[in-house]
Amino acid sequence: MFSGPPPTDYFAIFGIENKLALDVEDLQRRFYANSREWHPDRHARAGAQQLAYAEAASATLNDAWRVLRDPVARAEYVLKNAGFDIGEQRGRDVPPELLEEVFELNMALEEARDGDENAKAEVARALTKFEGLLKDIDVQRDGIFLDYDANPKHETLTALRALLNRRKYLQNLVRDARAALV
Amino acid sequence: MAYSDKVVDHYNNPRNVGSMDKSRTDVGTGMVGAPECGDVMKLQIQVNSATGIIEDAKFKTFGCGSAIASSSLATEWLKGKSVDEALEIKNTDIVNELALPPVKIHCSVLAEDAIKAAINDYKTKQGAPVSAETVS
Fold first, then answer.
1. What is the ipTM for the molecules in this complex?
2. Is the pLDDT of residue B44 over 70?
3. CB-based contact (8 Å) between A179 and chain B?
4. Active-site residue, from B8, B17, B20, B37
């Protein structure tokens, strides 16, 4: 097993199938088991080739655990591997109604920062609403995960991309709104 | 990362900040956003329907200095142009004028999208057939 480099794919390093919906408890068990098995200290005297394998496998395993245990980071990983550009996303898949809401909340945030108490109440209302929307998005996300795992189609990933864009927006807003209400 | 002098100037003294009544038929509104950084940009034009000339332009952007500078510059350029001339404004023109670094190019893309969205909205209100170029 120590011939050639270890897998670089995050699912492969865990020895699991490439799925969006993961049992994180199972993943954690595998992480601990593999971490023990590939801990470089255990291979220190086993020769350079085996030590190099253990070091590379441990490093990939740590990165993979950080990414795969988090549903959003896991989805971004799958999207990136499927050729979706992450990072500089164009805003076209954000629905216009959401943009309007984002804009209005930003206006209220600006006023709240200037000490306007009415604006603060508006921000508090918006915060409750956006927190609810975030929860809805996570439910939708889990649905898309199962959908894609059962039937891996490109358009399902396109829908996932759009959903995660919305989520990112809402997350930034919730963060800003909370900061404005402190 | 250091901003260019022009970006700093537009950021400190943004031109044409404000908003117009978006229900007016001679006003076109473009609202665009970039989810990754959370930027949102509203750009509006007021067009003389007889001449097709953009008489006024306003913007309000929540975002980084480059996003604010890109939209501020866009409103400056829009005023006095015909709607068709305005469609010629490219994000690369904004990049060059503001000396935007590669990581901020998406801000100029956002501004170009906002211009096109505003013109699209204006044309839709006027009942004119929307050209393929403005449909996004």
1. 0.79
2. yes
3. no
4. B37
